[in-house]
Amino acid sequence: MDFLRPTTWEEALAAKADRPEAVPIQGGTDVMVELNFDVRRPTALLDLNRVAELREWSMTGGHCRVGAGVPYTVVIDELGGPLPGLAQAARTVGSPQIRNRGSVGGNLGAASPAGDSHPPLLAAGAVVEVESRERGVRMIPAAEFYLGVKRSALEPDELIRAVHVPPATGPQYFSKVGTRNAMVIAVCSFAVALHPRERRVGTGLGSAAPTPRRALEAEELLAAELDWDAPLDPALLRRFGDLCARAAAPIDDVRGTAAYRVHAIGVMARRTLTWAWNDHLEKRAA
Ligand SMILES: Cc1cc2nc3c(=O)[nH]c(=O)nc-3n(C[C@H](O)[C@H](O)[C@H](O)COP(=O)(O)OP(=O)(O)OC[C@H]3O[C@@H](n4cnc5c(N)ncnc54)[C@H](O)[C@@H]3O)c2cc1C
User: Fold this and answer.
1) Which ligand 1 atom is the nearest neighbour of the CA of 93?
2) How far is ligand 1, taken at its centre, from the CA of residue 52, in Å?
3) Ligand 1 centre and the CA of 276: distance in Å?
4) What is the pLDDT of residues 16-55, one digit of tens each?
5) Boundaries of each FAD-binding PCMH-type domain copy (predicted)?
6) Residue 218 in contact with residue 204, Cβ under 8 Å?
7) Residue 204 near residue 119 (C-beta atoms within 8 A)
C-alpha cells in the first residue's frame, strides 16, 4: 500500500487527480477501523494531516468556514457560539480520543446516515466545499451532498476542503437516541435550527433513512403557520412532530427497529422545537 503525504492543498489535489483510487485519511477514526476489519484494502492512502489549512476555521463572507480536518474538540471548544447545533452534536461523538482525532470532513467523507454532524449541518443550511485539480471548486448544499448509504456527491478525483455554515441567528438543538450515553452510534437523531430573520425553521434527521435528510413538509408547515411572537401552539407542535416522523424512512437493524425510530424522531422533533422555542421567547423577553 502506498502512503501519500502531501504538505499543501495543491499537492493533495494533484495526488487525488493522479491516484483517484487513493483513500483520503484525516483523523482515521473511520478509515483505520475499515482497514483493521479488512472492509477495504486500498492501494494507496492519501494522508491529509500535513495540510495545515484543513485544520483551520474562519469567518468568511458571513459564513463560518470549517476546514475539513477540524476535529470535534475544536468545534466544541471554539465554535459553540456561532454553530451551537454542530457543537452539541460534536459533544455526543464517541469518546475524548475520537473527538480529538475525528473531523467534520471525515464525517462528510464517510457519509454514514448515522453520522452526527449531518443533522445540524442540514438544519443550519450548510454548504460543502469540494475541489478537484481538473474542475476546480464545487459548492454543494448539504441537502444535495448525501446520495445513498455511505454515498456522497464527491467525485473520485475530488477532496472535501471545508464546510460553510451560516452562524446561528436563533436557537439550535441536537438530540440523539443511543443505547447508552457515550461511545454510541445514533439509533436515530434530530436537529432543529430557528432562523428568526427568515421566519424559517430548519430540520435534519439522522439514522432514520438511507441518507441524512430534512423534514421538508414539517419545515413548510412551520413556515406557513408558526406565529413567531406567540407561545408554541400545542396542536401545531404535534403536527410538526408527526410530519418529521413521516419524513423518516428507517430500517430495522441491530440498533433499533424502524417503528421505534419513526416514533423517536417524532418525540425528538417536538422536544427540540420546544427547547428552541423557549429560548427564542426568553431572548425576546430579555
Ligand atoms: C470508537 C468510535 C466511536 C465513534 N463514534 C461516533 C459517533 O458517536 N458519531 C459519529 O458520527 N461518528 C462516530 N464515529 C465515526 C468517526 O469517528 C466519525 O465519522 C469521524 O467524523 C470521522 O472523521 P475522521 O477525520 O477520523 O475521518 P477518517 O477516518 O480519516 O475518514 C473518514 C472518511 O472520510 C474520507 N475523508 C476524510 N477526509 C476527507 C477529505 N478531506 N475529502 C474527502 N474525503 C475525506 C475518508 O476517505 C473516509 O472515507 C466513531 C468511530 C469510532 C472508531
Assistant:
1) 8
2) 18
3) 29
4) 999 999 999 999 999 999 999 999 999 999 999 999 999 9
5) 1-170
6) no
7) yes
CB-hemisphere CA count at 13 Å for 2?
14
Contact 245, 266 (CB under 8 A): yes
Distance 246 CA to ligand 1 centre (A): 29
Query: For cell 483510487, what's the residue?
Result: 21
Q: Cell 419513526 sits at which residue?
A: 262
Which residue bears the cell 475530488?
158
Is the CB–ligand 1 distance for residue 33 below 6 Å? yes
Burial of 15 (0-12, 13-18, 19+ CB in 10 A): buried
Burial class (CB in 10 A: 0-12, 13-18, 19+), 3: exposed
Q: Does residue 39 have its Cβ closer than 6 Å to ligand 1?
A: no
The distance of Cα 73 from the centroid of its chain, to the nearest Å, equals: 15
> Mutate which of 3, 21, 30, 128 to test ligand 1's pocket (most atoms within 8 Å of Cβ)?
30
Interval 104-143: pLDDT, tens: 999 999 999 999 999 999 999 999 999 999 999 999 999 9
Domains present along the chain, CATH in parentheses:
172-285 (3.30.390.50)
Q: Measure 159 CA to ligand 1 centroid, in angstroms.
A: 14
Cβ 64 vs Cβ 165: under 8 Å? yes
The answer to whether the CB of 160 is under 6 A from ligand 1 is yes
